[in-house]
Design goal:
Elements (H helix, E strand, L loop, with lengths): L15 E4 L3 H11 L1 E7 L6 E6 L2 E6 L5 H14 L4 E10 L9 E8 L4 H6 L5 E3 L2 H14 L4 E7 L10 H5 L7 E5 L2 H10 L3 E11 L8 H18 L2
Parallel strand pairs: 1-4, 1-5, 5-10, 6-8, 8-9
Antiparallel strand pairs: 2-3, 3-4, 5-9, 6-7, 6-10
Helix pairs in contact: 2-6, 4-7
Length: 237
Amino acid sequence: MATAHIESNLEDIAPVVLMPGDPLRAKYIAENFLEDVKQVNKVRNMFGYTGTYKGKKVTVFASGMGIPSIGIYSYELFHFYNVEKIIRIGTCGSFDPDVKLLDVILSTGACCKTYFHTLLDGGEGNYCTSSDTLNEKIIQTAKEKNTSLKAGKTITSDVFDVYCDDKELFRSNFPNEKFLSVEMEAFGLFYVAKKLGKEATCLMTVVDSLFDKRSLSSEDREKSLNDMITLALDSVL
């Protein structure tokens, strides 16, 4: 079978999908973490791979950037390919002074000022939670692996906040809740999962911060991202 955006056969896709935004990060994960890897999608260069991790069949499938892109790929994977769980694994910015560069964040829910859900099915509200079951498993796995993890709410933005002319004006749009992080996809993923009766959550590594102007080395970024990837994979065993 195939959809407008995915060329895979039904049996090519595992019930559990890890979803980075960057297609080359999907390739990196497949080559460095999975065994018996098969590329299952290259349409629009949105790479997908299926292999095994410690004997468990897992698919890694890129989402691209923003709610429209992850909305398409998550919908097609859930609806047409019988995927049951998607964990977005990506990067984010800090939205809280206590959230430091290279912290690993688990999103318990995402707030977004968007018309995505209204246009999709008439949905209302601007907040959507992630899967409690997946979150509990990730938190448990982090404790077992002694991996530092912060869990809390995130902002999903339609703009890359780093490029906003007035950062405080951006922050003033979300004044009444404590948010740990800001990124561009989680709300769309969570909403699609709930609509289709599936499970989804989001793990992120903090790579920029309004409160810390340091530049990260490539080595630091790679190690922290690898820790996050390993945590996601171990959580789905």
